[in-house]
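Predict both folds.
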Amino acid sequence: MDGKDPLRHLPLTPQVFHILLSLLDDDLHGYAIIQEVNKRTGGRVKLGSGTLYAAIRRLLEAEMIEESDHRPPAEQDDERRKYYRITEFGRRVAAAEAERLAELVDQATEKELITRLHPASSKTD
């Protein structure tokens, strides 16, 4: 552990949380992050490029993400693109935020504001 406290960065903005979620599975460039968020949220969350790149700048400064040297094959790449990856610290911050949000959902459920079913229990076989 690097000694940084993930809780100092909470709460995350929804946009930052979505960016971190997008980078959990793969290194992505900016436009690919926008596309992944759009796809994962069914279009409910739309990141503008200004919002995205301001958030990326802050995430880089906070060492939650870093530029990646990993690139696709040249015929599938545009050399102008910068690719980003989540750092171990970024993963810890994202996990802390997910826990914080889960606690809020639990509290709303306890107050009967919402009824929450575990996703596995709502599937039909």
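Second protein follows, with its predicted structure tokens after the sequence.
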Amino acid sequence: MPHQDLPRPSRSDAPPQDLKDVLDWLTDGIAFDGLAARRTCTWTPRGLTWAALLWAGADEPTLAQRFESARTLVRLAGEQADTTAATYQAFLKRLHAWTASLMLAVVLAFRRRMRTALAERFAVAGFEAFGVDGSRLQLPRTASNQRHFARPTRRHVRRRRRRSPAETRAEAARRKKAEDPQLWLTMMVHLGTGLPWDWRTGPTDSGEREHLRQMVDALPPEALIVADAGFVGYDLWQTLRQSGRHLLVRVGSNVRLLSRSGVVRTGDGLVWLWPDHAARGGQPPLVLRLIVVHEGRHPVYLVTTILDEARLPGRAAAELYRLRWGVELFYRHFKQTFGRRKLRSHRAENAVLEADW
């Protein structure tokens, strides 16, 4: 029986096999009708989205070559006419103008798909749980990238002892590495599916805690945020709690937890966080539950705003924290498997586009 005569599987039976079906499947449910472009624009919103996804995910060594490949594929898929603007500069111009609207439509559609197509994996231990962590992406050493992304250089005025040639070379290498432009990426990954939910980008010295604050409102109500020891702090945790979300965070020596208070009555497993600046400002202590997980050679200390042990048993908390490694796996795939350890854009504004798409 010829291959073309075989019955094609429906979308619910099997994943799509050819590129056009893949792009249709990825962008299914996106309201492109409400994103009308100017009459003089030769790109359609759907075609520009397809081209941006292909451009960002292609393997060609330069971004211009990736654009040529993406434009050709979109035209062959029948989404764009032959008259579509053929220059890379025109494509970037349209992408700068439309990315905010297109990205919002794409992200909202993806989140709906995650809830429906992966409904059986959306909750873990009764929680819609999300892991968060940050990492740096390397950028070409250009003037534009250095202005926007490199860490500001700091001169040390005090005199130091005379260094050996080897020490001098090592110090110069460290300084050069510190001055290299890097884009900071903070990812919010859904722990049940391992798929991205939200993200923020910024200079190499960006604060991942501030990025988390910016992403809180996009989380479902009662969501559980699972994070490592970099996401600690009274103000951040109060913000998360007041937003109606919960947290499960690993703590170490950088957090001082108290077990007795004349203000808050604590029971077994309950601790409180009340730094000096909060106490002086008349702010109440933050009551938390301490969970000690005995795995490996050293215990792991977790705190959570879920005080009821029946709602979040210690074993479930340990499993959720193990799933936080899904964020690390995402970065490994993103940087190594897909070769995105170093972005290609020479201009800072284009680097953000490249990272987002």
